[in-house]
Amino acid sequence: MAQLQDLFTTTIHPLLSSFLSLAPSNKLLYGSTAFLTSYVVLYMPIRFIYRVYFDPLSGVPGPKSALVSENLNKLYWIVVPWRKGTEAFTLRELHDRYGPIVRTGPRHLSFNDIEVYNQIYKVNTKFPKSLDFYNHPSANESIVETVNIKDAHARRAALAPYFSKPAVRKLEDLIQSKVSLFLSRVQEIGTNVNITRGFRCLTVDIITSYSYEESFDSLSHPTFTPGWLLGFEQLIETTAVQNFLPNVFAVMEFVMEKFLPRSLVLTLSPIMGDVLNFKDVCSNAVLGQKVKYLAGERDMTTIFAQLFEDDEKRGRKALTDKQLIHDALSTVAAGMDTTGHALSYAIYYLIKYPDLQRRLLEELKGVMDSPTAEVKEEVLESLPLLQGCIKESLRFSHGVPGPLPRDAPADGATLLGHHLPAGTVILNSAYTYHTNPTVFPDPFKWDPTRWLVEDTREMERHFIPFSRGSRICIGMHLAEAELSVALGRFVRRFEIGFMDGFKDSDMEWRSVFVPKTTGMLMIWAKEREE
Ligand code: HEM
């Protein structure tokens, strides 16, 4: 006790007194330096030791460097240029090194075990989407980012009837007519066709016609490059930053949207300008429709119309304007790039492997006697090689390749023999499952014939482009119909080839929520003679 008193009078007291006698600006400087130093030199090492040896997750294998700081881990994927968007690849490597469960951060566990996956992504799951990830200010009130299980269930229930298989069958005329328009536009352009963007325009015109009665009319753009698409491409680039600094992004967005003329925003930050333009297109579409609906135009058969009013029978409130805008934005995003990307991969590989293209053409000729013949989706769905090409392209594009994080429930969970306390964030990446060499031999080979064998059950069990369970992709049947009709009719109609200058490396991707290729798929297309 006497020693403590000595320490106080000889060291601490003089230090404190001289600190208190400093000028206020010096006080701030020395105070923050002392705080930062003790944070880095004392707090961080002690916290690190606790995480490595004493934390409830300390028994889970994984790189110890990942336990230093949650924020540094996130920052790593944002600021190191060559690591941007490569998290999915790293997670797969970590599973190769450490096994089916890896601790990838202080609170983060990644899994590579399909039974665990099925337990988490199931109907009536107790594992909600994690706010650690679903917090992007531009979409955090959308259905996709609704983390509360009950709220998400109510919002899905309102949309589900519009996306069931029978409902999508009723959309066949719309899908076929948009595909016809798309094919004639491709024929007209003929050379230097940016088919990556072409497929995006096709899928977005379908989903916007269904959502708002009027499509964005992207297919009529001379080069498939409408302004809003550039905005979308920029928005998707900002997802990691939005996730890391949601409040900063939200404030920036708010200030730029409400207080600055758009021309100035476009000069100061072209990315933000494009993002806001894209947001405007989506919000004008949905709010414009709401005005018409509330003015008495009630005979709309679109997805959004029923969300403008309370549904007393089901105890559901009308969506707020912010929810409507976020849904409009995320439905376009969810439905466009995923489908477009799978179609681009199919075309890329069919050009690369002409023998497979010839085989597919023969199959298609069996149901379409001329390059421009009509064919029902139902018929295309029954063609084994076409469906093999679609499955393989979905396996290669993954839907969302990186983790779709879920939280451990409030009372924790035990997975693969480890207890996960509440607050644990659980990661599962489609990329890891889709490239498992035991299930998909030679996994990086695009091989649609792997789906033509008698027993595909093991592959199907590991095939998760649309996710599973109560948060499975709501647009899955629509996407499947678009994929069959667009790919089948495209290959039957055109001879195709790469443009000079196109390189295989243009199709390499990194994950910005959805995959983003380094370049665009540039092709020529010429109508077949027979
Ligand atoms: C090949 C095409 C598609 C793929 C691979 C795909 C994939 C996915 C995946 C993996 C999820 C789960 C995301 C998560 O857990 O956070 C999802 C959710 C969703 N998808 Fe798709 N999607 C496709 C097409 C579509 C289409 C055409 C629509 C049309 C509207 C759509 C609308 C949605 C919506 C609204 C959700 C959120 C569901 C929820 O959170 O409960 N998707 N999709």
UniProtKB/TrEMBL annotation:
The chain crosses the membrane at residues 28-46. Keywords: Heme, Iron, Membrane, Metal-binding, Monooxygenase, Oxidoreductase, Transmembrane, Transmembrane helix. GO terms for molecular function: heme binding; iron ion binding; monooxygenase activity; oxidoreductase activity, acting on paired donors, with incorporation or reduction of molecular oxygen. It comes from the Eukaryota. InterPro entries: Cyt_P450 (IPR001128), Cyt_P450_CS (IPR017972), Cyt_P450_E_grp-I (IPR002401), Cyt_P450_sf (IPR036396), Cytochrome_P450_monoxygenase (IPR050121). Coiled coil: none annotated. Its cofactor is heme. PANTHER family: CYTOCHROME P450 (PTHR24305), CYTOCHROME P450 12A4, MITOCHONDRIAL-RELATED (PTHR24305:SF166). This is Cytochrome P450. It comes from Arthrobotrys musiformis.
